[in-house]
Prior knowledge:
Largest sheet: 10 strands, mixed
Strand content: 15-25%
CATH class of the largest domain: Alpha Beta
CATH superfamily of the largest domain: Vaccinia Virus protein VP39
Oligomer: single chain
Strand order of the largest sheet: 3-2-1-4-7-9-8-11-12-10
Shape: globular
Order of helices and strands: EHEHEEEEHEHEEHHHEHEEHHEEEEHHH
Amino acid sequence: MQQLTVCELFAGVGGFRLGLENTEKFRVIWSNQWEPSTKKQHASLVYEARFGARNHSNVSIEDVPTSEIPDHDMLVGGFPCQDYSVATTLKNSKGLIGKKGVLWWSIHRILSEKINKPKYLLLENVDRLLKSPSSQRGRDFALMLKSLSDLGYAIEWRVINAADYGMPQRRRRVFFLGYHKSTAIYQALKSSNANNWIEKKGVLSSAFPINTIAQNSSHFNLEGDLVTLSDSFNTTKGISPFLNSGVCINGEVSTVKTSPSYDGDITVLSNILENGSASSELFISEEDLPKWEYLKGAKKEMRKTKEGFEYNYSEGSMVFPDAVNQPSRTIITGEGGKSPSRFKHVVSTKKGLRRLSPIELERLNMFPDDHTKLEGISDAKRAFFMGNALVVGVVDKIGDALVKKIKKLEA
Length: 411
């Protein structure tokens, strides 16, 4: 089959691109990266340094006309977690308008306005998307499924923890794949039993095998228009109806609780450590060690707010230093910098306790060594990139499984 052309939104430093182009069946032909909170566009600079500036856009996607985005086979992106509620509707052909600044609606706008719509979607977000907002659990995901369904896409989703499949970091994210009604996969899903697709026949179950917990499943319809759904979905403040795996087609949702099934090789934290070559700046001084021990330790103490209100504060202890015989904890955006922190990783070495290096953080997300190294980019900024990134190996496996499914159904 020919290479599938890809449009990469919210590109960061190119995790989707690395994962998809590893399979050699995908080619990114247009990308967009814009960081609204910073004057210098560091992530975009790294992206251009690694992949070239040609066909790369560094302006807010909200300001990019759909006509400037080339037609593509697949749209991918890890979009920001925001309030996705519907603000208003128009009576003209544009239909729905979400709140300005909420970038999900930029994806929706592109898909709405494209005459030649992408055949496939691969989108990623934090797993709490399935439960947000707290006032209407699951509403945000319901809006996405319904809006994509209205645009002619079937969706399958799964919450995937990379470490459950042998990868070096415990990082849980929801991935959802969309198939346009013009594709063979859409027709195959439409004619399949939903639970059978989730468990065995789907792309995600092929990439990441599962065990299903059949008694924990549900089926329901997303009814009404998006405004009605936004206002009325799960207003009882009950738990979210969305379980960690599922499909949606024509507004009909089937969702099942699943658990991973994997017996292959496992990469642990010790496997990715630099042996002896880590910078001396990463080591924790004896002077700072008590601060680290306090922040990592259990606490039961009185604290006072700025207003003078006293309250009891307690929290459990963190493993300190981090266990190196298992996959790492999730990388956070504040991983860089010397200041003591409860959440930064610390490992024990022959030379003493130290923080993780930029290369080690890249390895935990399965990026090439020094992918984010660039003149003018600090180690703290490199750590920030990895805190925002995805695990490349997850995208690699999904892309490979998608290609195999397309070949099988279109042979």
